[in-house]
Every structure is written in C-alpha cells, then in structure tokens.
C-alpha cells in the first residue's frame, strides 16, 4: 500500500498565511504616498477680484499669494521680493509641468503683481494665471 504524499495531522495549522498579502499592501501604500502630488496652498486668505469669465483651474501646483499690503506668500511663508525668482526656479525644477496661479488681493498694487509674473517668466514658468472669484 502506498503512503500518501502529504498527510495532515491535528498538530499542523491549516490556516492561510497572510504575511505575503500584508507585504504587498504595505508596498502599495508606500508607492501611493511617494507618487501622490500634494496640494500646496499659499497659507493666507486673499480677497480676490471678481470676473465674469473666471475659469476653475485644477492642475496648478505652484501658488503665490500677494496680500493687501503687497507681501508675497509661498507655502505659508512670507517671501522677500529678491527671493521670489530663486524660489520659483526651485519649485519649477521640482515640477516642470506645474502651472503658476497668482492670488493677488484686490487691494494689492499692480506693480507687485507684474514683478511676480516677471520673476515667474524668468524662472521658466510659461503657464501663469491670475486667480479671480467667479461672479
């Protein structure tokens, strides 16, 4: 009489090993965290002007705010006028396809807005939008 190739005894555990599945889930979690693009906010509330032709733009990854006192904000930090261009160059290198949205307060001066847009062009950013409130 032949002996069976595999014999189950009462001492052996016949459950399913979950370790490989947990390893795969953990690797997928790390993959999604690393590849996710995080939304960067300017960190201040800006009273934007109204426009009848305002369009919602969802793909902007670089945001700059100019408050009513002409202070420039990037990533919840106040930025000096001289460091706007290097900061935009660094952000453009990190995300070459990212568009720039300038959130200028309606009481800010046109001069500050033009300087920020000029620095963005010098940094190599070609897609620049000005934020407005839809009427």
TrEMBL record:
The organism sits in which domain of life?
A: Bacteria
Q: Which UniProt keywords apply?
A: Cell membrane, Membrane, Protein transport, Transmembrane, Transmembrane helix, Transport
Question: How does the record classify its membrane topology?
Answer: Single-pass membrane protein; Single-pass type II membrane protein
Q: For this UniProt entry, which residues form the secretion signal?
A: none
Q: Name one GO biological process term.
A: protein transport
Chief localization: membrane
What GO molecular function annotations does the UniProt record carry, in alphabetical order? transmembrane transporter activity
Q: Does the keyword Protein transport apply?
A: yes
Bilayer-crossing residues are: 20-39
Q: Name one GO cellular component term.
A: plasma membrane
One Pfam family per UniProt:
ExbD
> Carries keyword Cell membrane?
yes
Q: Where in the cell is it found?
A: Cell membrane
Q: Which InterPro entries match?
A: ExbD (IPR003400)
Q: Into which family does the record put it?
A: Belongs to the ExbD/TolR family.
Protein name, UniProt field: Biopolymer transporter ExbD
Species for this entry: Ketobacter alkanivorans
